[in-house]
Amino acid sequence: MNTATLGHNMKGCGAGWSPEQVIDACAARGFGGVVFWRREIGGRAQQIGDRVRASDMQVVGLCRTPYLTGRDAGSDDEVKASIDMAAALGAPVLTIVTGGTEPGTTGVLESQKRLAERLSILAPYAGQRGVKLALEPLNPMFGGNRTCIFTVADALAVCDMVGLDHLGVAVDVYHVWWDRLLSESLRRAEGRILGFHLCDWLEDTTDMLLDRGMMGHGVADLKTLRGLVEGAGYEGFCEVEIFSEKWWSTEPEEVLDLIVERFRKVC
To answer: 147: Cβ–Cβ under 8 A, 6 or more apart, which residues?
Structure first.
């Protein structure tokens, strides 16, 4: 369970639950792990991580680093602080949403080069802290201000430029379901897939950020996508991450129960 699915404790969104409430509700329904967002953790990383492990679940990951490219990019110190938080939480993977195009550039190649330069500094630090960094390609509609990588192939190209351990790819259904070359890219990603994010793409999506579908309510071929990811050697958790005003306004217990049902039936 990615806590974004319940509004990740954003003011005015979702359940408004504390991390402890999310942990207890997920454990009661047999979830294997939880992925948190930095805004929820504050200075309580060790405490929250211990609560997860005491509930017989795993801390699967942490979202996310500050941007690494674009006009809103964070500093190296800010990114390292997010790595430190993941380590204290006991999260083996820290997700990266790259940020947009570098000021003064056009296209994405220069931004991808800048991304690789920064990762060459940050990936070794993550390795020292026992944390892997997962580059998450985003749907092309997020190009410009949120991402400079759009496909698994893009993410792998950056990984190849860096050439260091502790760097891989997070595969999110919402962002890659449309890519007809995905199966080829995933074969090349064997051993480098660090996360698999589940949701669905609604046929009549009304908001590019906040209208993701519950699994099985959209047009993504979820079973095939999961088969491709696992066929490339991924043995980790399926992570349900649904940014949705609809589901954030639904009782959280109902959302969690539906996730269990839909995962068993359509994923």
So the answer is: 97, 98, 99, 100, 137, 138
